[in-house]
Design brief:
The chain has 425 residues and is an alpha+beta fold. The protein has 13 helices and 18 strands.
Length: 425
């Protein structure tokens, strides 16, 4: 959530910054509500002070033999009037909160405006793989090698679903084990969060209210809950309504979960197979930091995601996203994008993002230093990694002329030493 004080002090700056995110807004009405709220709040506080003063005068009046009923009557009149002001105050605060809660995060100043057409690749790892034979796409390879059953996945769950089978299931699990082992080595705390989350969790993460319909809601539960679209939603809520000491920070977590999203697979060539679906596996990293440490944390998360793809031996690029292409709650994002040879494009396997204090304000996640400084923490996240695009990239970049696929060296210990995935005879 954007700080209302910043909107109050620099409305034009905020307005222009949000335009870079393709979000046009007018703060005239909001600032009018805010002005009225502050005026009414002052009246309420003055009335409370007057009531306290009158109540405090009762003992002395009694001692002097005065009629205190006049004082009680006056207090009652002020209290009745104050109740009306407090109700109006409540209504204004709700309108202000609803307005500000719908606003996206302010993008960092160095980001260019516009959508994905303005994204910029800032570095590339390795050379594009070259083949001296006619390459196959990952769908053909997965079926040819008996790794994935798309037909039975569609049969039991519908379009946008698949079944990992035999060595395909082992390859998927090997990827997850590899990611987990790397994060443990780097000192991140392993979390297995619940997959059913309450509405407040979606609000704090910044997915609600705007993207409330993009998740799967479960009916008949009290309170109503939804299936997590990413482990970030759970991890950034771990310290909701808490005050963290500077000695506890940074907090570094990672979690493995399936992710559930309403965005279905499409019929576009680049989203065939497991490139996009309703459910996919992902390991997610999250950090809580002091504000002055969040830039360093961001570079660490980007570096960790890059390192995982690099160790898998895959060709990829890192793109700095334009303001209009980063998510609603983020201030900056770098995507790590792996190359898919059959379609000649790069697909995102990790988004590393800095939310600054946007999520922390929504979740009332604060810090307090030993010197007494207080404020909101910064929250950051990065996929580390999502498997549903890494898996196809491995099949395509490591394919051989005979239809076999070499297993990346770092995954072999998790595959029982298997070095090559061979066609089914």
């Amino acid at each position: 959530m954007i700080d209302i004080n910043l909107i109050r002090e620099k409305p034009e700056y905020v307005k222009e910054a949000l335009k870079k995110k393709l979000w046009d807004t007018d703060f005239t009405e909001l600032l009018s509500w805010d002005k009225e709220r502050r005026e009414i709040l002052q009246i309420v506080e003055n009335n409370k002070a007057e009531m306290n003063k009158l109540s405090a005068s009762v003992p002395a009046a009694k001692k002097a033999g005065e009629d205190v009923s006049v004082i009680f009557k006056k207090v009652k009149e002020i209290a009745a009037k104050n109740a009306e002001f407090e109700e109006k105050l409540k209504e204004l605060e709700q309108k202000i909160n609803d307005f500000v809660a719908a606003l996206p995060n302010i993008p960092d100043d160095d980001l260019v405006g516009g959508g994905k057409e303005n994204n910029k690749a800032i570095r590339v790892n390795g050379e594009k793989p070259q083949f001296d034979f006619e390459i196959k796409d990952h769908v053909w390879l997965a079926e040819h090698l008996g790794l994935v059953d798309y037909d039975r996945g569609a049969k039991i769950a519908g379009r946008g679903a698949w079944v990992y089978t035999n060595l395909g299931a082992r390859l998927e699990w090997a990827l997850l084990n590899f990611f987990i082992s790397e994060h443990l080595k780097d000192g991140y705390q392993f979390i297995l969060p619940p997959h059913l989350l309450n509405e407040q969790s979606g609000y704090v993460a910044g997915q609600f209210p705007k993207f409330r319909e993009d998740v799967f809601w479960l009916e008949g539960l009290e309170p109503q809950r939804f299936l997590l679209p990413t482990a970030e939603t759970a991890l950034v809520n771990l310290h909701r309504d808490e005050i963290l000491s500077d000695e506890e920070l940074p907090k570094k977590y990672f979690a493995y979960t399936p992710c559930y999203r309403r965005e279905a697979g499409s019929y576009r060539t680049e989203e065939r197979g497991m490139i996009r679906g309703y459910q996919f596996d992902k390991v997610e990293m999250v950090q809580y930091t002091l504000p002055e440490d969040s830039d360093k944390a961001f570079e660490e998360l980007v570096g960790k995601a890059e390192d995982l793809v690099r160790k898998l031996g895959l060709h990829f690029q890192v793109s700095k996203l334009a303001a209009g292409d980063i998510s609603h709650s983020m201030a900056r994002t770098y995507d790590i994008e792996v190359y898919i040879p059959s379609i000649g494009i790069y697909k995102e396997v990790s988004s590393a993002s800095n939310a600054r204090d946007y999520q922390a304000r929504r979740g009332k996640i604060r810090f307090k230093t030993k010197e007494g400084r207080k404020g909101f923490v910064h929250t950051l996240n990065a996929s580390g990694l999502a498997t549903s695009r890494i898996f196809p990239a491995i099949l395509e970049q490591y394919q051989q002329a005979d239809g076999s696929v070499i297993v990346p060296e770092v995954l072999r210990p998790f595959m029982g030493g298997i070095e090559v995935l061979k066609p089914i005879k």
